[in-house]
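Hi R.,

Here's the input for the zinc ion complex you asked about:
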Amino acid sequence: MAAPTHMTIAEARKALKAKKISSAELTDAHLKAMEQTRGLNAFVTETPERAKADAKRADVVLAKGEGGPLEGIPLGIKDLFCTEGVLTTAGSHILDGFKPPYESTVSAKLWQAGAIMLGKLNMDEFAMGSSNMTSYHGAVKNPWRRKGANSDLVPGGSSGGSAAAVAARSVMGATATDTGGSIRQPAAFTGTVGIKPTYGRCSRWGIVAFASSLDQAGPIARTVEDCAIMLQAMSGHDPKDSTSADLPVPNFEAAVERGVKGLKIGIPKEYKLDGAPKEIQDLWEQGIAWLKEAGATPVDITLPHTKYALPVYYVIAPAEASSNLARYDGVRFGLRVPGKTLDEMYENTRAAGFGAEVKRRILIGTYVLSAGYYDAYYLRAQRVRSLIARDFTEAYKQVDAILTPATPSAAFAIGEKMDDPIAMYLNDVFTVTANLAGLPGISVPGGVNADGLPLGLQVIGKAFDEETVFAVGRALEKAANFTALPEGMA
Amino acid sequence: MSLDKDTVRKVATLARIKVPDSDLDHMAKELSGVLGWIEQLNEVDISGVQPMTSVAQMKLKMRADEVADGGNAEKVTQNAPEGAHGFFVVPKVVE
Amino acid sequence: MTALIKGQTGEWEVVIGLEIHAQVISKAKLFSAAATAFGAEPNTQVSYVDAGFPGMLPVINRFCVEQAIKTGLGIDGKVNEISVFDRKNYFYADLPQGYQISQYQQPIVSGGTVILDMKDGSTRKIGVTRLHLEQDAGKSLHDQHPSQSYIDLNRSGVALMEIVSEPDMRTAEEAGLYIKKLRSILRYLGTCDGNMEEGSLRCDCNVSVRKPGQPFGTRTETKNVNSVRYVMQAIEYEARRQIEVIEGGDEIKQETRLFDPGKGTTRPMRSKEHAHDYRYFPDPDLLPLELDPKWISDLKKVLPELPDARKTRYVADYKLSPYDAGVLVAEQETAQFYETVAKGRDAKLASNWVTTELFGVLNRTNKAIQDSPVSAKALGGLIDLISDGTISGRIAKEVFEAMVETGKDAAAIVEEKGLRQVSDTGAIEKAIDEVMAKNQDKVAEYRSGKEKLLGFFVGQTMKATGGKANPGVLNELLKKKLAG
Ligand SMILES: [Mg+2]
Ligand SMILES: [Zn+2]
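And here is the predicted structure with zinc ion in place:
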């Protein structure tokens, strides 16, 4: 049996059932790992007492041969999910001291399935960022380093704490959210697996909103199978979210080993970027070869509006965010910085409470919605968004899923790209299209680059066809046989 | 589109974010950069294209008219930075 | 139409459009399941959705949508099968989300008409531009503390119908009639209780002035005026103020103003000094509102008879004057009451009794018709006694007063007080003879041509019979006897 922190969720589940390990032992091992990896700054809040108490309870249930599909499994929760009575900050100063009197639907489903919360995970402020450097609680360090180098790398973002904790083996899996790539990009940077399901698959109720038409929750874990197990528990219709899909949740776990024989896999030519590192292109070609070997047929396709996806995103997401973040005004929760008048109080509070990137996006969003600019920016962006979605609809007439690189590079150093917003935004160039079209996408580690850093492959599926995404993801995972570990983790 | 300082000031006021005058130039430059990059969207032929309303291809569901929430003033106000007698409190507003 | 105001430079026309915010009658709020009842302790009817907590999402109340559809049908508007909820973004202490969910470019109802019943019996059509659904804000209390405002979110999220009129009104009186008529329709439909004191019906008055024939002038918007009388006062004041400003050589500023009920004046609203830029965009937490056409047509089928139709029926079937019919149908309860009274009886007589005697008592005792001290059945009984000659109209008034006081029915009071009308010619003749004997000089005058004295003899004879003589019989006999 593997050491507890090196087990997958699937393995741990078996071991718990077979009483080879208790949830208390499993949880303690992870709490210990959490302490040992504190230097990564992956956690905003640690909840060891609660974790221990819940593990004890889980062991009682398990002893009776009962329990949910995640009974006794210790997880981390991105700090964007409201957790009842537990500090929830969304990585922002403005939510200082906020303890929600309610539990997000997704986290509640995990607790219902028997999972155990180890703590709340660090993230880019309000999920705005691709590096985790915008968090009020400080940057998260990637457990991976370049071979022979000492500089700290970013874990990606915004779910950087989730990805780093999973990679560092301090949690077995973590919740995350993805608005433009915030699950898949950090997963790719940390050698973990992350899936953003179809828009509407997971309830958004109780998740601090960034851009409502793009936000989706999903898991980050160490294997495709673990992601399937977690997503199974997280999914389902929620009458409290009007955009939640009232569709049955398929058996994701069963789909994982379905294989790819006979599947047509689209290879979009627009994802071949000028000036992208060769290692990215090589990995992509390797991925195509693996799927071919596994019995799939690669098909060249075109997604002609791909290059406009990021600019569309940087109109729509800030526009929605500027409105979603208006509620942080110092009146009902969080930070208040006094002012003589109500407006002064608002301005002081929001100036002190939001970081630079959040302010930048609020200002852009306010601008593109303001009188005289709405049509030129917002409405135009929503029209181009329709074209991007249509590209996929056309492509899916020919193929079952699409294979692309997950990111245009491997993890970069902390501090890099901070003074160039557009360079930072380009991190999401391969992932953001799936958000705009509402499609499911998974990132699976495909190998390491010359520096020994993990690189990810992305599979994008049809709406509500996560099953195929899992199957293709698993085929890649099997072929890649990614066993590398961050230094010192072996 | 390049933004001037006054526009940034106006937008910041709309967004209720205090921006010190000394930051306006820098911010104007930064925002102009992003907006300029966004303007590549002008290349796209959007004639006859409907704007996306939602990627969720479904009908809006409606709930029944039943009272099933509220009645927890304490929980609603317990996170407030300032309160009194069950109310939220803000600096006096003169209408 | 002479609705012009005289200024120093000639006559001015006032142009008025009204925006009515009507609170939808529903148990729960538009997008949350918290209660809507009036007068609860602060923040006790607040869900986390209404308080704009992180991660909270709106889910629409079907009944509120139904109420808006019914209202749209009731004002003869077009109910749109697809409408869209937008966010109207602005910061205010009682707006917890930082935006109001409202409908901007695609409202649930487009167009409509409200017909005003003018005093002279004529009607005037006022156009309705649109009706849309939106959330109410919370309530700020500014007078509880010297340096702080208190915020109560109980009202936050309650469903409102914003009903916007065309700028079709020209006098404060028309504006008053418009509100009353719209309120009447809403009450008939059961979609809004119309209570202006509790804020379930609030009115924003858009007023501008112009020289007749000229294009519209710049308008001001006076917000949240909460009685019909105040609306009329605010419009009068605002029109005169604007004329004075223009005639003084200044321009009208397009601004939001506040009505001061104590002074009857308006003043600019300080908190709205900055021009707003609401940055409307479709709410991404909601999908477009799609209405099944069958739902709309089913609702149309069960719509109650509305005041205009009822009025037409009263004029046609009951032969009432349009004005009286308008008065009777204004409130559903009054109309119901009237119809019970009028059933199988002289409809005009019934109308007179309801609009004069009954309304008089209700006004005097400050009671609603539902709490009338005389029931419709009892009033009908009284009218029956008049019609079958048991009592005279004059006695009936006395009986009615007794009914109000004692709650007894008319027949009992007539019996008790011996008020039955005397139609017995012998008894009346006897009384006439006595009166003539006592007033021989006047009999002579009458006979020499002073026929005006008939009234005197009627009065005296009536007095002698204790008012109980049948006036018809009395008149006839008296004329005969006086003729000699
Ligand atoms: Mg208005
Ligand atoms: Zn309104």
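One thing worth noting: Residues C 21, 134, 162 surround zinc ion (ligand 2) (CB under 6 Å).

Cheers,
M.
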